[in-house]
Specification:
The protein has three helices and eleven strands, in the order βββββαβββαβαββ. About 35% of the residues are buried. It is an alpha/beta fold and about 170 residues long. α2 crosses α3. The strands form three sheets. It has a seven-stranded mixed beta sheet with strand order 1-4-6-5-9-10-11, covered by helices on one side. The chain has a two-stranded antiparallel ribbon with strand order 2-3. The protein is about 20% helix and about 30% strand.
């Protein structure tokens, strides 16, 4: 499945006070949102990963695995600042017509989560059954659970250990 694109065409204020004139988030979805909208598994990816969670988290996500697209609606977003299709330093600054490069504003974990919250609501997600992430994705999952505790039913923070496909939970 190819990367989909969510566009937010309003000013997006960052925690620092800087404002992006809009933002884009690349994302993947797998499975189908059920009628009760209670089968959402949202994945926040690590710093070097991308939104194709079925590609990089085998053994946990995929057909026949714990988070199976036949049972779950799996969403993974390329976080704000990512080089995989979301607004970041390689995006075009509309004020100059050139890539932002080093002028792209500094972003925080909370900014990453805030952008994903906008997208979740835009694509019709009323709540998340399971929110999961490893490394920086775990930090995003924790931040989201703090920012919007009633929206998240279960949150998992994983620290992935070498040579273990499912990681070590803490």
């Amino acid at each position: 499945m190819s990367t989909q694109l969510y566009k937010y065409d309003k000013p997006f204020e960052l925690e620092s006070g800087a404002v992006l004139p809009g933002l884009e988030l690349g994302y993947h979805t797998y499975g189908t949102l059920n009628a009760g909208k209670d089968n959402v598994v949202w994945v926040c990816h690590a710093f070097t990963a991308n939104s194709d969670v079925l590609d990089w988290w085998k053994g946990l996500f995929g057909m026949g695995y714990y988070f199976n697209p036949e049972d779950h609606y799996i969403v993974c977003v390329n976080m704000l600042g990512s080089a995989y299709g979301s607004s970041g330093p390689l995006s075009i600054d509309p004020a100059t017509g050139q890539p932002y490069y080093l002028t792209f504003p500094q972003i925080t974990t909370r900014d990453m989560v805030k952008s994903q919250q906008l997208m979740a609501k835009a694509i019709g997600i009323d709540s998340i059954q399971t929110l999961i992430g490893g490394s920086l994705g775990g930090q995003q999952a924790s931040e989201w659970a703090i920012m919007e505790p009633g929206f998240i039913k279960t949150s998992s923070l994983l620290h992935l250990m070498p040579n273990t496909p499912l990681g070590h939970c803490f």
